[in-house]
Design a protein that fits this description.
By secondary structure, this protein is an alpha+beta fold. It is about 65% helix and about 10% strand.
């Protein structure tokens, strides 16, 4: 089909080009040449009339048509010469007419015009007039031959154009017939060689798709279609093999599901026991500790004057140990309940949870004279408001606890989109305290890990571990910014809430915790 199209295009273009050439030759050269020949002859007639008029009246105004005729003759002859280039016969006719006109002017017209004195007419010289008439009649005979040759050229051009058009139409019609025949042949071949085997392949594939996986797909038809059929048959065999494997996996999954159900029952029982243990730890286990602390205090009150200094110190150690055990138990309960008891998923305005945390830390803030800078607007996320309050309270509380002894504590809270992850907020708490060495960046988040002795800084070592568990429970991550050396900076991320949130502000009010006053300060 491509060969037919290419050959047809070449032949059709050739025929159209030949027709266009013949048409252009006729319309742009032969017929305009005939028109220019008439103009040339009219210019010669004007010259002859002008000379005769001048000879009769001896008035120079009658010579003006002669002069204008010579000018028109020159232009018409030049245009005619350009049009008949490549046609020797027509070019010879033009040269003969030009030569005849030149002979007529040199033998008759020019001598006659030179012999006339303006304003003094003279009798006609009959012999000279006869010679002039004879010369001009010869010129007319040349015109007749030129006109006849041009008319014949026009007829030949029209006949050739008609012939070319007839041939063109016949060839184009034959091309259309060849195209139709080729298309019909190809349609029949496609039907026999491709469509029927393809329909057979489709029926076989549908039979397999309907569940008859044992039906073998035969490879018939052209090589490409046979290859496709072979691939489909290979796919059927692979499906059969995978089906057998999936049946085995299904049986295994059924057994695993039964095992998982049993494990789920065991996990629920274990959780129930854990809840019972939490209840015991929060009530029954703390009651003996309270009694130990109370009776130690009573012992000190009643027998304090009878105990020496070491005895009083031992009593203080016992009371302090009981109190620390109570704090440790409460912190462990809080840590274990994250994501298990506190599982609320509500829209939470982080600004409100920060307000609650700062309210809880009012005494520590006032005692240290700390200054807390915070954004005017914090984003809204989804989670447990109680846990977020605990998160802020631990981070800000650590900033106040581990303050530098030589400067007033300054705590700065910032928020904004996380540049490393889309749809995520990045928040940070920065202080100017004693800082954390970079080598302990991971250790500070491990439960019960302490960087300082209990005598230097109190606490159970659970705070930052609790913060990490809260942040990770809400789908974020927390880390120590080791690039900040003037104190400590903890950064954490939280997913963006689907509810409308307030945009983080670049300028935020700063809270002077010592006085409770609000001033504008860049966050």
């Amino acid at each position: 089909m491509m060969l037919v199209v290419v050959v047809g295009t070449v032949v059709g273009a050739n025929m159209l080009d030949r027709t266009a050439q013949v048409s252009d030759q006729l319309l742009q050269r032969v017929q305009p040449a005939q028109t220019e020949a008439y103009r040339l002859q009219a210019a010669l007639v004007n010259q002859e009339s002008g000379v005769r008029g001048y000879a009769s009246a001896a008035d120079r105004q009658f010579l003006e048509p002669y002069i204008r005729g010579k000018h028109d003759e020159t232009g018409a002859a030049a245009r005619l010469r350009a049009l008949v280039v490549g046609r020797p016969a027509l070019l010879a006719d033009l040269e003969a007419v030009e030569q005849g006109a030149a002979d007529w002017r040199s033998d008759y017209a020019e001598p006659l015009a030179a012999s006339i004195v303006p304003g003094r007419p003279r009798p006609v010289d009959q012999p000279a007039a006869d010679r002039g008439k004879e010369s001009f009649d010869h010129l007319r005979a040349l015109w007749t031959k030129q006109n006849a040759d041009l008319a014949r050229a026009v007829r030949d051009g029209r006949a050739r154009l008609a012939h070319e058009r007839k041939v063109r139409n016949a060839v184009l019609g034959a091309m259309v017939a060849v195209f139709l025949l080729t298309g019909l042949t190809l349609a029949v071949l496609v039907r026999i060689l491709v469509t029927r085997p393809l329909e057979a392949l489709r029926r076989a594939s549908r039979q397999v798709a309907d569940g008859d996986f044992d039906h073998v797909i035969s490879a018939d038809g052209p090589a490409d279609l046979a290859a496709v059929a072979a691939d489909v048959e290979g796919m059927r065999q692979q499906i059969v093999a995978e089906l057998e494997a999936s049946r085995g996996q299904r049986d295994a999954l059924t057994r695993q599901a039964a095992d998982l159900d049993a494990q789920a029952v065991e996990l629920r029982r274990s959780n129930a026991e854990l809840e019972q243990f939490a209840y015991v730890a929060s009530h029954d286990l703390q009651e003996p500790l309270r009694k130990v602390a109370s009776f130690c205090q009573l012992l000190e009150k009643r027998y304090g004057d009878k105990l020496d200094e070491r005895g009083l110190q031992y009593v203080d150690f016992a009371v302090d140990g009981a109190k620390r055990m109570q704090v440790l138990i409460n912190d462990l309960l809080t840590f274990s309940r994250v994501g298990r008891v506190n599982d609320a998923q509500l829209p939470v305005a982080l600004g409100q949870t920060l307000d609650k945390a700062l309210t809880n830390l009012t005494t520590a803030v006032e005692e240290s004279g700390a200054r807390v800078d915070r954004p005017e607007h914090l984003p809204e996320v989804v989670g447990d408001p109680t846990l977020f309050t605990m998160l802020w309270q631990n981070l800000v509380g650590n900033a106040l606890k581990f303050r530098h002894p030589d400067r007033t504590p300054e705590v700065r809270v910032t928020s904004g989109p996380d540049p490393e992850a889309p749809d995520t907020w990045r928040l940070s708490v920065t202080d100017n305290g004693i800082g954390v060495p970079a080598q302990f960046a991971e250790k500070v988040f491990v439960i019960f890990q302490r960087l300082h002795s209990r005598d230097a800084y109190g606490g159970t070592g659970i705070g930052l571990a609790l913060c990490k568990k809260i942040v990770e429970y809400h789908g974020g991550r927390i880390w120590l910014d080791t690039g900040h050396t003037e104190g400590t900076r903890f950064c954490f991320t939280l997913p963006v809430s689907t509810a409308p949130t307030a945009a983080p502000a670049t300028a935020a009010p700063a809270t002077d915790a010592a006085t409770g006053a609000h001033t504008e300060k860049k966050a």
